[in-house]
Amino acid sequence: MAGLQQLLAFSRTARLGSFAAAARELGCAPSTLAKRVARLEEALGVKLFHRTTRQVSLTPDGEHLFRRCERVLSEVDELQAEAAGSRGTVSGTLRLDAPLTYGRRVLMPALARLLHVHPALGLDLRLRAHAAIVFRMPSSGRDRTWQLMGPQGPLECLPRAQVQVNDGEGMVAAAVAGLGITQVPDNMVPGELESGALVELLPECRPPAMPISIVMPSARLMPPRVRALIALLEGLHSH
Q: DSSP 3-state assignment of 166?
């Protein structure tokens, strides 16, 4: 069973992108999880993750193992359900790959009804027809999460990136070039949206507007020119 624990530790870390997040899901310490993955790497003789201080990403060997590992763990879940005599109970994680438009317009409404009827069922829906272009934050080297609005309120997700860019204009250029889908502020792409070079996906999941802050040394003795600027900016963003 030690081998299975290592595969589970690897799979959850690959899915969530960090040892800390995977450890929270599995209910163990991040150090324990990292040791299990390290033992798996040692046993296989390959490096599975590129590691930074806060995040991990899969190596090519890790990508290959992750695809196979997901199938194996799914079969293990089914075997455990049968052994527990729960074959008639709809539970576990339902993993689906689907094209984006079909998934949004057809599958999502149907799956919402399915989850309502079977609350013990989990859903992992991936629209793998598209590559993701994500923003690599220069200050931390981490990928910025995407902000979405779900049925229960705001949520965050970090797609598995195929293209990582540390410049917003570069992300727009990559999307226009057809390298994948991305999330950028709407004020960066008015021309591209108007011309049809880019189209908005999932408008019903558009997140709330991000706040813009003005930072100054002190609010005391504020020069009139600064007050004028603040008033101008407030007027721009009040509409």
A: coil
Identify the H or E element spanning 150: strand 146-150
Coil vs helix vs strand at 208: coil
Tokens 């802050």 belong to residue: 213
Residue 168: which of 135, 128, 201 has the closest Cα?
135
Q: Where are the domains of the chain?
A: 1-82, 90-129, 132-205
172 and 192 Cβ atoms separated by less than 8 Å: yes
Which of the four CATH numbers 3.10.580.10, 1.10.10.10, 2.40.40.10, 3.30.565.10 does domain 1-82 have? Answer: 1.10.10.10
Specify whether the CB–CB gap between 48 and 61 falls below 8 A.
yes
CA atoms within 13 A on the CB side of 17: 11
Instruction: For residue 169, give the nearest of 187, 156, 194, 157 by alpha carbon.
Output: 187
According to the model, what pLDDT value does residue 38 have? Answer: 92
Instruction: Name the CATH architecture for the domain at 90-129.
Output: 3-Layer(aba) Sandwich (3.40)
* The one-letter amino acid at 119: P
Name the pTM for this structure: 0.45
Residues with pLDDT less than 50, the chain: 1
Taking residue 58's Cβ as centre, other Cβ atoms within 10 Å add up to 19
